[in-house]
Amino acid sequence: MRIESDCFSLPKAGNRSDEYEDASHISTHVQKDATICRFAIADGASESSYADLWANLLASGYCFGRFDGTTIHKSVSPLLKAWQKKTGGKSLPWYAQEKLSSGAFSTLAGITFRFANDAESAAFDGIAVGDSCIFHVRGDTVFSSFPLSTVDDFGRRPVLISSNAANNARLHAFVHQWSGTAEAGDAFWLMTDALACWLLTRYKEDRSVIRRLLELDGARAFNHLVHEERQLIHRKGHAYLRNDDVTFIRLKLVKGT
Amino acid sequence: MYSAEISRSNPSCILFIIDQSGSMSDPFGASTKSESVSDAINRLLQNLVIKCAKSEGIRDYYHVGVIGYGAGVGPAFGGVLAGKEMVPISEIADNPSKLDKRLKKVPDGASGLVDQLVKFPVWFEPVANGGTPMCEAMRTAHAVLTQWIGEYTQCFPPVVIHITDGESTDGDPTVEMEQLRALSTDDGNVLLFNLHISDSPSAVELRFPETADALPDTYSRVLYEGSSPLTQFMIQVANQEYDLNLSDGARGFVLNADLTLVIQALDIGTRPANLR
């Protein structure tokens, strides 16, 4: 068994590429008779500062194996210190100081696969905070979705992981965990909220969206899809794809080594 | 309606109208009405600036104007902003007249609050002078917004925040407020919100009422009737973040209360539920 991965991303239309505040990370640890693969995305909240840095710390922290869903505060603690170290000690205007003291905020969705090198299935477990999602796709069907499963689940005010510990007091109640078994041939898609919501909208109308994403053959095709779907208007009057940073990790579990 | 994206290329506009008339020197609580007005406008501007702050600086999501009325009617900023009708929010951020230090309650991480010393920007000092030409102030606002809307027809419509003790001396402002609310962009009508500072003995603290039943006097009722209904998104934020129980028909009117909610409920992207 092996896992093929592609990562696509695009900033919000109207923003520069250095203003993109999502993050993604991938890691593979090959051991003697098993492999551990971790994948994570994070979406820094636009109403906070240094959110890109925080999202990167969370996604990479997950892929370095530092996350345990049952003790989220302990997992986040060294990352808070890293964020504070990188953002502290600067002379800032009053508003930047105030914003900094509130901390940055970000979602996190991560999934870990463990499998023997000659296996045809893999155990997986995932965690999520906020509205970044992971979809388990089998054939042309969304087999399961995590942690959100309907368009109505996407609000604009989720509880997120903060780089200021004082804002994380109730965080443990918002950590979602997931586990299961995947088979060779299955796909897993990690998507930040705008894209995840778009997928569920399109899927409800027509399952062909699955084939469309499976067949995306590179960054150019992804960019074209995003631009097109941001322009297309849904019958409810809004764009099919909300204008936001978008990040997509596409995984395929494949037989063989 | 009220769904246009607010961004640097599609900014929106917030126009404050503040009562600086002689009656504002009346005592109010532990201070005066004029101190309540200056405190309210400084706090609203502070919230708006912080909302637009990012690591690299301020993003100009809003153009902001402040019209004062009392001895005269016109742009109320002082210092380098004096005389300007409308400026990008970054210019306001960079030009407070002074920075005070104040204690602010912040979460302590254990479901409690602790005091933290923060810099509090001051753009406006208390002013109380002259009559209360509220109708003229509304007409001035109409002229300023007509010009702004002419340039930004597709943008989220302007929000007007009017802070007053309500005692107009140049007539009933009902028609002028109606004309202001009738202005519109392609995304909806101008939103007019009123903050009434009242020393009426029967005035209680009231936020976003759906009827005029609990209002203490005619001044309150005129301002209530002149206020726009809150948008659906604002009602959602009020109920989810401020633990209010508002339904359709809640008016953008508060009596002796804080209007910060309408600033927090302007949607410029993901706002975490645990950001306070």
UniProtKB/TrEMBL annotation, chain A:
Superkingdom, natural source: Bacteria
InterPro entries listed in its UniProt record: PPM-type-like_dom_sf (IPR036457)
Originating organism: Paenibacillus taihuensis
Record-given protein name: Protein phosphatase 2C-like protein
TrEMBL record, chain B:
InterPro entries assigned to the protein according to its UniProt record, in alphabetical order: VWF_A, vWFA_dom_sf
Family matches, as SUPFAM superfamilies: vWA-like
Domain of life: Bacteria
Limits of the VWFA domain: 13-237
Protein name per UniProt: von Willebrand factor type A domain-containing protein
Native organism: Paenibacillus taihuensis
